[in-house]
């Protein structure tokens, strides 16, 4: 049976695990090989953190992120102010951001991770909406080397999606992004291994699938299936309802 392959982002070390193992067993095996606990690692496929075995693939390497054992706070950046996300009930020491508001390093990491998952690469204070720099996030969330690389890769990808979505098509860059994006499972229809980024069949604008069903409505008004890429009729899919299965169209190639 083929094995899953995982390459650590920071040092390129390669690990393999038999597919027969469960998701929990795979994480435990990887953790043991790196002398850490299972909750200290994450598996990444494309731009997304994998949360089930069904989201894994043996067709290509997946990335491995190892989180720091703790997120220390520099004495000069400490704060006694309440955590902006959990108020006075925040657990742990807090850092003072450049805007003056406070947050625990763990909450800062989780907040930025959620933003990137939602294709938002601009990190803003929850209270005053001041934009935080990536350098500040790196230092005050005490990112590990793996986390820093993952964040930077995701930020760069979001920037490429945004740029290529509003400028004349750069065929080389477009095809590279379409070819190297991750895979997702469609909601309701449970269609697996669908490329997470598609180009609208009508206007070729990039669209990233974050959650929900396979029905996609582009800003140009075109309705299409994110899985098979068939263009809809009116507001209805040509391949059935949002909950029915259909073939997964190959990775698109522009030009």
Automatic annotation (TrEMBL):
One function term, GO molecular function aspect: zinc ion binding
Source organism superkingdom: Eukaryota
Keywords: Metal-binding, Ubl conjugation pathway, Zinc, Zinc-finger
Signal peptide start and end residues: none
Matches recorded under Pfam families: IBR
Domain IBR, residue spans: 194-230
Name used for this protein in its record: IBR domain-containing protein
Species name: Mizuhopecten yessoensis
């Amino acid at each position: 049976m083929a094995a899953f392959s995982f390459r650590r982002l920071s040092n390129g070390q390669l690990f393999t695990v038999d597919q027969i193992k469960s998701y929990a067993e795979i994480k435990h095996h990887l953790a043991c090989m790196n002398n850490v606990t299972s909750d200290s690692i994450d598996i990444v496929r494309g731009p997304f953190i994998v949360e089930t075995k069904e989201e894994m693939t043996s067709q290509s390497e997946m990335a491995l992120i190892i989180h720091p054992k703790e997120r220390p706070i520099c004495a000069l950046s400490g704060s006694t102010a309440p955590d902006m996300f959990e108020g006075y009930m925040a657990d742990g020491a807090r850092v003072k951001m450049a805007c003056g508001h406070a947050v625990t390093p763990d909450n800062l990491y989780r907040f930025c991770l959620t933003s990137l998952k939602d294709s938002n690469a601009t990190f803003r204070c929850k209270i005053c909406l001041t934009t935080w720099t990536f350098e500040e996030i790196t230092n005050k969330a005490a990112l590990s080397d793996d986390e820093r690389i993952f964040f930077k890769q995701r930020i760069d990808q979001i920037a490429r999606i945004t740029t290529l979505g509003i400028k004349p098509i750069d065929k080389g860059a477009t095809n590279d992004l379409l070819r190297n994006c991750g895979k997702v499972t469609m909601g309701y229809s449970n269609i697996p291994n669908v490329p997470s980024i598609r180009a609208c069949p009508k206007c070729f604008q990039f669209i990233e699938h974050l959650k929900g069903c396979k029905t996609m409505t582009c800003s140009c008004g075109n309705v299409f299936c994110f899985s098979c890429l068939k263009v809809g009729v009116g507001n209805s899919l040509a391949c059935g309802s949002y909950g029915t299965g259909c073939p997964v169209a190959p990775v698109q190639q522009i030009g």
